[in-house]
Write a sequence for this structure.
């Protein structure tokens, strides 16, 4: 089945630690996106990539980094510079003006 | 820049009653518009989309939405609410300008509570 897979589903981070969230798609979509979701704030765009080896900052990129070495993969690293990383993270992909397809999300908690 | 406003962060309806979720957008170009539904701790699922064809769009689970250019609105309706409709709903607009990355911009979401 085609789709987007995010892992892990739950992730715990200690203060000062970097963590990487995985996002893989087998839909052959060109564009991939990372969103952060906080209660009552909707979805805010962190980073997006339209093609391999290229990506752009979204509205809240500070404290995050990404890579796009393969079309299928768009991992997100939450660095220690992100002071409030506890949130629900959603990865999405799309091609052209079609709808975006979403993964099931990763819930990150700082402990 | 494009933006989306969803009026009402919470809506409570009785089972069997009309569901109406409001969405207004701003966009400098003809938009593509979407409604998504999210159940707790899950990703977003597409309900329906407007892509410049018919202005009345039918989606899954009995939902429909009407695009009104003059009002810059894309409100979501369902004639009769079911308990399974309890979820959070997001309206989104797509920027079709290539240089802007075909981004989807989301509204703040509306959480629907269905009372028996």
């Amino acid at each position: 089945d085609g789709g987007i897979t995010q892992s892990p589903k739950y992730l715990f981070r200690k203060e000062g630690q970097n963590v990487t969230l995985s996002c893989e798609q087998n839909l052959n979509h060109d564009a991939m996106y990372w969103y952060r979701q906080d209660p009552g704030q909707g979805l805010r765009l962190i980073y997006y990539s339209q093609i391999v080896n290229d990506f752009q900052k979204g509205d809240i990129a500070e404290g995050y980094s990404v890579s796009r070495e393969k079309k299928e993969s768009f991992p997100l690293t939450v660095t220690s510079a992100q002071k409030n990383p506890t949130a629900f993270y959603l990865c999405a992909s799309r091609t052209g003006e079609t709808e975006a397809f979403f993964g099931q999300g990763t819930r990150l908690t700082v402990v | 820049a494009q933006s989306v406003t969803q009026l009402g962060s919470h809506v409570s309806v009785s089972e069997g009653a009309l569901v109406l979720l409001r969405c207004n957008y701003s966009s400098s170009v003809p938009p593509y518009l979407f409604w998504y539904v999210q159940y707790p701790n899950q990703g977003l699922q597409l309900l329906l989309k407007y892509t410049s064809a018919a202005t009345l769009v039918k989606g899954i689970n009995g939902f429909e939405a009407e695009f009104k250019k003059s009002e810059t609105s894309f409100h979501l309706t369902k004639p009769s609410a079911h308990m399974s409709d309890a979820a959070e709903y997001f309206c989104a607009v797509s920027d079709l300008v290539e240089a802007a990355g075909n981004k989807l911009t989301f509204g703040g979401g509306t959480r629907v509570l269905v009372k028996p």
Observations:
- Residues 60 and 82 of chain A are 10 Å apart (CA to CA).
- Chain A is about 0% helix and 50% strand.
- The interface with chain B takes residues 4, 6, 31, 33, 35, 40-43, 45, 48, 50, 56, 58, 88, 90, 92, 94, 96-97, 99-105, 107 of chain A (CB under 8 Å).
- The longest strand of chain A covers residues 43-51.
